Amino acid sequence: MENRTALAAFAHRLLLLALLGFTTQAFTAGAWRQLAVVIGASSAWVGILAYLLDIIVRAAKHGVKVEGQE
Predict the structure, then answer these.
(1) Domain coordinates of the chain in residue numbers?
(2) Whole-prediction pTM value?
(3) What is the pLDDT confidence band of residue 52, given thresholds at 50, 70 and 90?
């Protein structure tokens, strides 16, 4: 039961980070790390999350061309 609570809290933090990133689209990887540390995510996951979310935000910002799309 305790693991579910921790997992739910972690998922909530990830959702919050994602929402903040997609609404501002101005976060760099460093800003993601700082924000996640303030929220309380573990430092190992912070680096991975920051890198992935930075890629997603950049792709959304510049538009992603799907193969076969003109």
Answers:
(1) 2-62
(2) 0.34
(3) confident
